[in-house]
Design goal:
Layout: H1 3-6, H2 17-30, H3 33-37, E1 49-50, H4 53-67, E2 76-79, H5 85-90, E3 98-102, E4 117-118, H6 121-128, E5 132-136, H7 144-149, E6 155-159, E7 174-176, E8 183-184, E9 197-201, H8 205-208
Parallel strand pairs: 2-3, 2-5, 3-4, 5-6
Antiparallel strand pairs: 1-8, 6-9, 7-9
Length: 210
């Protein structure tokens, strides 16, 4: 039995944290976390941040607080979205149009759905003038995230500060979520050594820790 037959797609649906964490403990025991996240799963999905229900719900709560009750309804925009799975999970929880974009530059073997719009990040921001921006696992050493944060639009940056994006982004004022539910491909699940978080820029503290 090959890996694609053996291992389900953990992102096929939004599962509870406890289920997802246990699944990756079992993968780690077999030494298969890296290969699994590089597409050796039932749908060949590449995975960087590992989503679960609690993680997505706490992100949605912050976004909804940031959106408030404005008369105008600009969208929530995810840039550099990969296959757009995060925005799919968020859509039922956010009362606003949600858009996923990616430059689709071929760096990774990602299966992009047609509804993920082909746009580089800054062009997407200029086109949609979003109310909130999401970046999940910005490419390593990319400085685009810094440019986005400087637009002053409320932004969630998700990932491992040492493995994606550019560390200079953290020179901008930010607030860490300190999420108990953040999981990623670089974590040590047995040792409970977790390396990622959600970092909020241009956001009010009461939106995050309410």
């Amino acid at each position: 039995m090959n890996h694609q037959e053996e291992y389900m797609d953990i992102h096929k649906e939004l599962l509870p944290y406890a289920v997802v964490h246990l699944f990756f403990i079992e993968l780690e025991q077999k030494g298969d976390v890296k290969s699994y996240c590089n597409g050796a799963n039932a749908t060949g999905r590449w995975i960087f941040q590992i989503f679960n229900r609690e993680f997505v719900e706490e992100l949605a709560q912050v976004i909804n607080r940031a959106l408030g009750k404005r008369r105008k309804n600009p969208p929530v925009l995810e840039v550099m979205s990969g296959d757009g799975r995060l925005i799919e999970f968020l859509k039922p929880l956010i009362k606003r149009r949600c858009i996923a974009t990616d430059s689709k530059d071929g760096r990774y073997n990602i299966g992009y759905p047609k509804w993920v719009e082909t746009l580089d990040a800054m062009t997407a921001v200029e086109k949609y003038s979003p109310a909130f921006i999401i970046m999940c696992w910005e490419p390593y050493l990319s400085t685009v995230g810094i440019d986005i944060v400087k637009t002053k639009v409320p932004t969630a940056w998700i990932g491992n500060p040492n493995m994606c994006g550019h560390t200079d982004i953290f020179e901008q004022p930010h607030i860490p979520m300190q999420s108990k539910y953040a999981l990623s491909r670089h974590d040590y699940f047995l040792a409970r050594n977790f390396k990622t978080d959600i970092f909020f820029f241009n956001c009010k503290p009461e939106w995050i820790h309410s």
